[in-house]
Amino acid sequence: MQNRAIDVHCHFFNLSFAFAEVLEIGWRWIHGDYPYKSDERGLPKVFVIMPPELRELAHYVASYFAAATDSPEEHYAYEERCCQKSQWHLSEPLITVPLMMDIFFMFDHGETEAQKAVMLALPEILQRDGLNAMMITEDNADRFDELAQIIKAEFIPVYEKSISARNLTPTLFAKNITTISRELDLVIADFKAGHAAEGVRTMAKSCTQTSVQMTWGYRKHLLELQNLQRDNPGTVLPFLAVDPRRIGIEELVREQVVKGAFKGVKLYPPLGYLPTHPNLYPVYRLCIEHNIPVTVHTSTGGLLSLCDTIKTQSKKKNGEIVPVTFDKKTNKSAALFFSNPANWLEILENSEFSGLHLNFAHFGGEEHISTLANQQPGEPDDSENWTLQIIGLMERFKNVYADISYCPDNDMLNYIQNIVGRYKIVQERLMFGTDYIMVMKESSLGGNLDHYFNLYTDIYPEMLNVNPAAFLG
Ligand SMILES: [Zn+2]
Question: Which residues neighbour ligand 1 (ion) by CB within 5 Å?
Fold first, then answer.
């Protein structure tokens, strides 16, 4: 792997995945079963009208995933094609690291701990949960259809808008809309046929010790990446999305990463949790024990929790667990609150975890990178600059890395050179990454991923292979 080029950060998910998760969030939410099942009886509950917050969620998620309509195989083939077409002139295929995403908890206020506790105490509820909560019967099929059509009606216009910039012929435009509409209908049909519920139950059962809470979109994408890895061993190294609120997540890491097809763990804190969440400690322990790399989203952009307040927890170095409340009014944004690299000090300063292979994705974000690079000599350091904070962590901890995914600025190579000139460590810790398919939203790429590769043709060679290979172990 040492001489092969690696894209350490990409995504092969799509709009259908996002639609399935939003549909499950919505169906559970209007029954009081979100994110955990509220009782074990499975009795029909009062159906409230589709609340405006759910429409907002559907619209927001759709806008984030609108560019991604291909299957994981097609995404992978496209990325390889673009790399071959670029000025890189590689003799061997690019090694890709597709990262999963877990968006199911982005609507969770954190006030359902009691429901979660019941499910934990009675694992059979969890076993039945997938089946009961997502079972669409004759009695409730109309209501499910109503909900599904409302959510679909939020998705389609967003997709239409996203492809309207592509100058398609009216026929091709209409064909694209029909295709995506059919794909969303297939997701709806899956739920109605009970596939979602059955699939969720099968997965939960396959876990040896405890049950794992599964949602349909998450499970489906997990299986897709398993297959893609199996068909492309050595060039597809997927990372499992870990959210500490998903019941049984430690077990899932054991099954899918320690023993399975997944190479590493992906965290996405701005969806509403801190890296010090107590449930992540057992995961970090597995990562240390089995040399598993962790990539964490670290920029002020990206998908954010839509909750105005979130109740969560943080576990300190000394083992103390403290309640934490995020409030949009005082904490400004979920990104600033949850993604701050300084949140990792409690983990890395803990001698048990100081050797964690940790990648701060996006290197703090393009804004922070350019600000640091443009700093004038003699100007005082800005301790709030995330790129600088990450460099500080690289200097202190031997396995801290960063990637420059989703940095399509034309001046990026100059910025990197400038930063390496001042902070030598960056040359051995920074890694190349694209953030395909997310980066395709950038109009500067003109819909061609090869432009992104071309931007980085003259990048330090170690950032393409030596550093990522060391990070991946
Ligand atoms: Zn990403």
Answer: 435
Start-to-end CA span in the chain (Å): 10
Distance 429 CA to ligand 1 centre (A): 18
203 has a pLDDT exceeding 80: no
Ligand 1 centroid, distance to 435 Cα (angstroms): 5
Confidence of residue 207 (pLDDT cuts 50, 70, 90): very low
Query: How far is the centre of ligand 1, averaged over its atoms, from the C-alpha of 301 (Å)?
Result: 10
Q: Domains in the chain, start-ordered, CATH in brackets?
A: 6-13+68-128+212-472 (3.20.20.140)
* 99 CA distance to ligand 1 middle (Å): 7
Ligand 1 center from residue 322 Cα (angstroms):
30
Distance 380 CA to ligand 1 centre (A): 31
Prediction pTM value: 0.94
- Output the CA 438–ligand 1 centroid distance in Å: 7
pLDDT digits (tens, 9 = 90+) for 367-419: 999 999 999 988 999 999 999 999 999 999 999 999 999 999 999 999 999 99
